[in-house]
Write a structure and sequence with these properties.
By secondary structure, the chain is an all-beta fold. It has a single domain, classed as Neuraminidase (6 Propeller), CATH 2.120.10. A four-stranded antiparallel sheet has the order 1-22-21-20, with no helix packed on it. Strands 4-5-6-7 form a four-stranded antiparallel sheet, with no helix packed on it. Strand 4 and strand 5 form a beta hairpin. It is globular, with a radius of gyration of 19 Å.
């Protein structure tokens, strides 16, 4: 947990924020802490076909979400495509095989980065994009844009190519739908970009929504790690994705690119703890203010290539849940690849990320 210096701005404790903090705090008294183990990786193809049967090149996959059973969806950045995957896992959570099963050509071409599936009744996805930045919902049947969420004005101060990199949906919503997103590196009003000596402070943004409405809510400061090596062309570090566990806790995927004997990319997966963290949504800038960041605990660190997306998979017979991570091939050393992890410990109630027939989202798709 980090406190930054400077003159503070007092924030009144709002009831909604207090409830949210209680839900996000690491549960007390649980017997098994979270742990993550790496399993394996498999290469992916470089093309598939869209809903009209037209072939397209698969590149720049930046987010992944579980649709149902062994079926997943990935989104491509700087494009208008969502790609469908079928993934077969073995009993220890390793990938036996993975292949594309088609794709959807969307109505818009944007720098999409994060993806979250709704459910079978709604048959749509939420996509986060860096440019505006914003969250949009698209129909998987037609590719039409159904709606765009309201973005808090402070995110207009994003650094170029560092907008909404991540997106995660609560897997078992009760009474409402919930989404989390964050900027990849600090807003210009919040502090510096990352470097080899310091990390960067981003804002975790919480949304609630139903079939026709949405509302941005609390924001929390999160400090990433510095680069894992020394500067090279394009060196950077930041928050690549978020994942919500069944009990509402968040995991964060960090990625840095720098020169190191161990590798050019380092990936880190953290468990987040919001206990005592400040809701900074009323702060027009974090520079010079006093606040408490979200705490984090390292679950896994390793040197793979450009991992940008993370999603929860099915239960593993030996215990825990599979996690899958997608590689963005938009650099000279990364290729289309899917990686497998297993997360163990007290994860909360089991279930698919979005149960079919969820009444929060049921009903006809109507653009608005």
């Amino acid at each position: 947990m980090l406190k930054t210096g400077g003159k503070g701005l007092h924030l009144a404790h709002r009831a909604t924020t207090s409830i949210l903090l209680l839900l996000l705090a690491a549960p007390a008294g649980l017997g098994q802490p979270l742990a993550v183990q790496y399993r394996n990786s498999v290469p992916l193809a470089t093309s598939t076909t869209d809903q009209t049967g037209q072939s397209f090149t698969v590149t720049g996959m930046s987010g992944i979400t579980r649709r149902a059973a062994d079926d997943y969806l990935a989104v491509m950045d700087n494009s208008r495509y969502v790609v469908a995957l079928h993934v077969n896992l073995v009993d220890d959570g390793s990938i036996a095989s993975a292949q594309f099963t088609g794709g959807v050509r969307l109505a818009d071409s944007r720098d999409f980065e994060g993806i979250a599936y709704t459910d079978a009744a709604r048959n749509s996805v939420f996509l986060s994009e860096e440019g505006t930045p914003a969250i949009h919902e698209y129909s998987l049947a037609t590719g039409a844009r159904l709606r765009t969420f309201t973005t808090p004005p402070v995110f207009a101060s994003r650094r170029s190519n560092n907008g909404f990199e991540s997106l995660a949906r609560h897997p078992l919503p009760v009474g409402r739908g919930e989404l989390w997103t964050a900027n990849e590196e600090a807003l210009t009003v919040d502090g510096p970009a990352s470097s080899a000596s310091v990390g960067t402070t981003v804002r975790l943004l919480h949304y609630t929504f139903d079939r026709t409405t949405q509302k941005p809510g609390a924001q929390f400061a999160y400090l990433t790690q510095p680069w894992h090596g020394t500067s090279i062309s394009g060196a950077k570090g930041g928050l690549s994705d978020l994942l919500v566990l069944p009990d509402g806790r968040l995991l964060a995927l960090e990625r840095s690119f720098a020169f190191s004997a161990s590798g050019f990319f380092q990936t880190r997966i953290y468990e987040l703890d919001f206990t005592g963290a400040t809701d900074v949504s009323l702060l027009p800038g974090l520079a010079g203010q006093t606040y408490t960041t979200v705490a984090k605990r390292l679950l896994w660190s390793g040197f793979l290539t450009n991992l940008e997306g993370l999603t929860l998979g099915p239960p593993v017979p030996a215990g825990g849940r599979a996690m899958l991570s997608i590689v963005d091939d938009g650099d000279p050393i990364s290729t289309n690849t899917l990686h497998a992890f297993v997360i163990t410990g007290d994860l909360g109630p089991p279930g698919l990320p979005a149960p079919a027939g969820n009444t929060l989202l049921a009903g006809p798709d109507q653009p608005h």
